[in-house]
Automatic annotation (TrEMBL):
<dbReference type="InterPro" id="IPR029787">
    <property type="entry name" value="Nucleotide_cyclase"/>
</dbReference>
<dbReference type="InterPro" id="IPR001633">
    <property type="entry name" value="EAL_dom"/>
</dbReference>
<keyword id="KW-0600">Photoreceptor protein</keyword>
<dbReference type="Pfam" id="PF08446">
    <property type="entry name" value="PAS_2"/>
</dbReference>
<dbReference type="Pfam" id="PF01590">
    <property type="entry name" value="GAF"/>
</dbReference>
<dbReference type="InterPro" id="IPR050706">
    <property type="entry name" value="Cyclic-di-GMP_PDE-like"/>
</dbReference>
<dbReference type="InterPro" id="IPR000160">
    <property type="entry name" value="GGDEF_dom"/>
</dbReference>
<dbReference type="GO" id="GO:0009881">
    <property type="term" value="F:photoreceptor activity"/>
</dbReference>
<keyword id="KW-0716">Sensory transduction</keyword>
<dbReference type="InterPro" id="IPR003018">
    <property type="entry name" value="GAF"/>
</dbReference>
<dbReference type="InterPro" id="IPR035965">
    <property type="entry name" value="PAS-like_dom_sf"/>
</dbReference>
<dbReference type="GO" id="GO:0006355">
    <property type="term" value="P:regulation of DNA-templated transcription"/>
</dbReference>
<feature type="domain" description="GGDEF">
    <location>
        <begin position="560"/>
        <end position="691"/>
    </location>
</feature>
<dbReference type="InterPro" id="IPR013654">
    <property type="entry name" value="PAS_2"/>
</dbReference>
<dbReference type="Pfam" id="PF00990">
    <property type="entry name" value="GGDEF"/>
</dbReference>
<dbReference type="InterPro" id="IPR013515">
    <property type="entry name" value="Phytochrome_cen-reg"/>
</dbReference>
<dbReference type="Pfam" id="PF00360">
    <property type="entry name" value="PHY"/>
</dbReference>
């Protein structure tokens, strides 16, 4: 036995199933492949149980020993083996069983003790702890015998020489039938090839001239039941000498043998099943010899030799046939590898072609060429390709259910395989294609992606003529309870329906290669998509800040003069806060569309973020750039309308033109300064950058760079402006105002640095420093006047910062100060920032007894809403209400009405900006509680302020 054969045998013997059928001897009752407990009549079976003491007896014996050996079975049963077989022959068998080249088809010449014959040919094998010895042949006179007329080695050599000329399985099948027809002279020699459904087709035939041809006929899978296929794999060469011979029973003397069934899987003599006899009889066949062709442990094909008279094939020839079975099976695998190698080479050429289509002109891929190439490669009628959930291209036959197919990608049928294919969709995917014959074939190539990505190739129905050897039918059970073979083998023609051209192994190989190409292309598309995302604003689909800044750098590096327009939407924040982000997003999209429509050659519009846009013009001409700025302002004189909304969104535009030494940073900073200048001048217009703005920008930059160091070096100090009682004009409190006192004595006023501090976030640490210093000074102030109060200005950012508020509350508690003597001042603008969060902060301060003051009341944001919605205690009237009260009756009335309004709300009042005695007297007349202004004292340091306390 060859190593290969031993490996195959071990795999088969260790298997518990073949196909869907469990392999047990009980299968023979339901599916009687051979007649249990019987052998064919042309031989004698001797079975001995293998024992540990070396003594072997004849435990099972066929009943025909008296006929063939001249000895009654009862005489031999229970006797030692050497009573029948010579000691020399037994030793030869024992040695043979240990030989690696031994198999159940190997024959030996044995000496036996028999009055009829002195020697016989025999084969033997072990199975289930038993030794099986088969004597043969014992043939009737009318039997003919087949045998190779040369030595077995010569037969193998000659066959192998012929076989090596075969380039395909059909070629190999032709070699086999001609060789065996010539050598063994059976009436008909055929080769079956089995498809995936186990149907068999005669692919080669050699026969006697008078016989009807079977070439091209198909036989249903039911002609060879599953257990029979299993046995054909186990025993590669199977002989039936005559279907008319009576099966011979097997006798035993073992007491426990009533339920014992001999496993005759490897027996050459095992008897035929009644169904097999009936089947051959219906075909008119009397004797047969088969050789199995096995691939992947499954019956792939069969060489079948039929004879219309009894015929025996000698043991030595069957031994050669068994060897040729393994040689042919191995050659089938070799042909597969050769075909795969050739297919791989052709597939590589195809893959290279698709690569050329997809990657050689990446900016403009001709998908028509790609589609045509794939359809040619896969012999398809239509193709649909999707990438990241979007269609990429389509051509030819397209199925209307492509969306459902896409949704079905999550099903186990599709998601578990890289390539799903079917040539009968109505059968394989009934929930989608039952009753739909327009498309019968589908190959779906899945591509790895979070969103559906795939290649779907469709095939039409392809009608195919199948010639059946009789009508297809399964074995049926008759009234007697027995299974019966079909009786008709008359040719019957059938056209297949609901089937496309089947997908070949080469198609699947090409599909996998295409998959690798398109995975690479998918990665390339994703790279482009990500690169686009890096440079694209997803909301407006305009270029983004990254793109425009890179573009400016490139043009400036190339010394190209450019104009930069920085565009800000004046009223967008009000729209966004009032109507929500969904409406705000639509407004931004319309702003982007209008700006895009104004582009000229060499210009590009981008969104920087929020409601800020920019236009870069590749031209340094002042008139061209000014005209564009005017056009943009004009474009937004018309309202933005959608659904039931109408919005006016004017723009403020800052314009800068590059100079020889411009950098991207300086150009953008200049445009930014100009834009803010336009906005501070009322908006809805444009401003060009000028030297004054640049000076302001330089000053602002210097503040940004130095403010942190100033805080670190204690240059941020508190100044105090007195607040007086309107009745006594005595100092009763101080407003805390911080100053930047530089080391060289220069004082930077708050209007210059607090705005920068707020925008940079430095207002938070500055505020903490101011609170710390102010509370310490308040302790010293109150040593002179316990009723003195102090007001602290809080910006919107500070009021919404928990750290600042926590610090104030904790410091007041730790220093033992009365919180009611501390006013927290805020501007009306603070309320606009975040109404809900602001009220939560104010309520928290009220709980801790702080007084809340609304500063700059009447400066432009005044509303009854603030007086009723906020938990304030004090209103500070803005200086603009005070300036003209002494010489303008209308101003006096307005301030008086404001005072009455505060009184109705039980609020204390403070008048700011008192600079003259006339203003002081008017304020006193109106009964405003407190006054503050230069008339009573300018902001000063602590040393000067404490002297003001009486």
């Amino acid at each position: 036995m060859t190593d290969y054969l031993k490996k195959i045998e071990q795999e088969i013997n260790s298997a518990i199933a073949y196909g869907d059928q469990e392999v047990t001897l009980d299968n023979c009752d339901r599916e009687p492949i051979h007649l249990i407990g019987h052998i064919q009549s042309h031989g004698v079976l001797v079975v001995s149980e293998l024992t540990t003491n070396g003594i072997q007896t004849i435990d099972f014996l066929s009943e025909n020993t008296s006929q063939h050996l001249g000895i009654e079975p009862g005489i031999l049963l229970g006797q030692p083996l050497d009573a029948l077989i010579s000691e020399h022959s037994l030793e030869m068998l024992r040695q043979a069983l240990t030989s690696p080249v031994h198999n159940s088809q190997t024959y030996y010449d044995l000496e036996i003790h028999s009055p009829r014959v002195k020697s016989v040919q025999a084969s033997c094998h072990e199975n289930g702890g038993l030794l099986f010895i088969e004597f043969q042949p014992f043939l009737p006179p009318d039997f003919t015998s087949a045998a190779f007329d040369v030595d077995g080695k010569d037969v193998v050599a000659e066959f192998t020489t012929r076989m090596l000329r075969a380039q395909s399985f059909d070629d190999l099948a032709t070699v086999m039938v001609l060789f065996f027809f010539e050598k063994l002279n059976y009436d008909r020699v055929m080769v079956y090839k089995f498809d995936d459904d186990d149907h068999g087709e005669v692919v080669a035939e050699a026969k006697q001239d008078h016989l009807e041809p079977f070439l091209g006929l198909n036989y249903p899978a039911s002609d060879i039941p599953q257990f029979a296929r299993y046995l054909y794999v186990q025993n590669r060469c199977r002989i039936i000498t005559s279907i008319l011979s009576e099966p011979v029973p097997i006798n035993t003397m073992l007491q426990d043998s009533s339920n014992y069934q001999l496993d005759l899987r490897f027996s050459n003599l095992r008897s035929m099943s009644p169904i097999h006899i009936e089947y051959l009889s219906n075909m008119g066949i009397e004797a047969s010899l088969t050789m199995s062709i096995v691939k992947d442990n499954k019956l792939f094909g069969m060489l079948i030799m039929h004879h219309y008279e009894p015929r025996y094939c000698e043991l030595r020839s069957r031994e050669v046939i068994n060897q040729l079975s393994f040689i042919c099976s191995d050659y089938v695998k070799l042909l597969d590898r050769v075909e795969a190698a050739l297919g791989t080479e052709r597939s590589q050429d195809i893959r290279n072609l698709i690569n050329v289509h997809l990657f050689d002109n990446e900016q403009k891929v001709n998908y028509d060429d790609v589609a045509a190439s794939i359809l040619h490669v896969l012999d398809g009628d239509g193709i649909y390709v999707a990438m990241n959930g979007e269609p990429l291209f389509a051509s030819g036959l397209l199925h209307e259910k492509i969306d459902l197919i896409t949704q079905g990608l999550d099903s186990s049928r599709l998601s578990n395989s890289q390539v799903f294919y079917s040539s009968n969709l109505a059968k394989d995917w009934p929930e989608m294609f039952a009753g739909d014959s327009r498309i019968c074939g589908l190959m779906l190539i899945n591509l790895p992606s979070d969103r559906p990505s795939f290649i779907a190739v469709f095939r039409y129905e392809r009608a195919k003529l199948v010639r059946w050897a009789g009508r297809k039918q399964e074995y049926s059970e008759a009234d007697d309870g027995r299974l019966h073979a079909r009786r008709s083998f008359k040719e019957w023609r059938e056209y297949t329906k609901n089937q496309s051209l089947p997908w070949s192994n080469f198609d699947i190989l090409n599909a996998k290669n295409l998959r690798s190409v398109f995975i690479r292309y998918l990665l390339r598309m994703n790279e482009r998509y990500l690169a686009k995302l890096v440079s694209l604003d997803t909301l407006t689909e305009l270029p983004n800040r990254h793109f425009i800044t890179s573009r400016i750098d490139l043009l400036l590096d190339q010394n190209v003069a450019v104009g930069l327009l920085l565009i800000d939407c004046d009223r967008f924040k009000t729209i966004n806060d009032s109507l929500g982000h969904d409406v705000g997003d639509k407004v931004l999209q319309e702003v982007a569309r209008r700006l895009k429509s104004l582009e000229i050659p060499g210009s590009v519009v981008a969104r920087l973020g929020g409601d800020e846009f920019t236009m870069l013009i590749q031209d340094g001409d002042f008139d061209t750039i000014e005209k564009m700025a005017a056009n943009i302002v004009g474009a937004f004189q018309l309202p933005i309308s959608f659904e039931h909304y109408n919005f006016y969104v004017p723009t403020s535009i800052g314009v800068a033109i590059s100079a020889v030494d411009s950098t991207r940073s300086s150009l953008m900073r200049a445009a930014d300064m100009a834009m803010y200048d336009a906005k501070h001048n009322g908006g809805n217009g444009y401003k060009f950058v000028n030297r004054g703005l640049m000076n302001k920008a330089d000053e602002r930059l210097a503040i940004e760079q130095n403010i942190y160091q100033a805080l670190k070096q204690n240059e941020i100090v508190n100044y105090y402006q007195p607040i007086t009682d309107s009745r006594t004009y005595s100092v009763c409190g101080f407003e805390v105002l911080c100053r930047w006192l530089k080391a060289d004595g220069e004082i930077i006023p708050p209007l210059k640095f607090l705005g920068v501090a707020e925008q940079t976030g430095m207002i938070i640490p500055i505020g903490v420093r101011v609170i710390e210093q102010a509370l310490g000074d308040l302790q010293r102030f109150q040593q002179k006047d316990r009723d003195l109060f102090m007001t602290l200005n809080f910006s919107p950012l500070q009021l919404l910062d928990d750290t600042t508020v926590d610090y104030l509350i904790n410091e007041v508690r730790e220093k033992g100060l009365d919180a009611s003597k501390i006013w927290v001042e805020m501007t009306e603008e603070s309320y606009i920032e975040d109404e809900k969060a602001l009220i939560q902060t104010l309520d928290r301060l009220k709980v801790h007894d702080f007084k809340l003051a609304l500063d700059d009341f009447g400066s432009g944001y005044s509303s009854m809403k603030y007086l009723t919605a906020l938990p304030i205690d004090i209103v500070k009237f803005d200086k603009t209400l005070i300036d003209n009260i002494h010489n303008n009756a209308q101003s006096f009335k307005l301030l008086k009405a404001s005072r009455q309004l505060a009184s109705v709300c039980n609020l204390m009042t403070v008048a700011e900006g008192i600079e003259t005695s006339e203003q002081k007297n008017c304020v006193s007349e109106i009964n405003i509680d407190y006054q503050q202004g230069y008339l009573f004292g300018k902001p000063t340091d602590f040393a000067a302020a404490i002297k003001l306390i009486g």
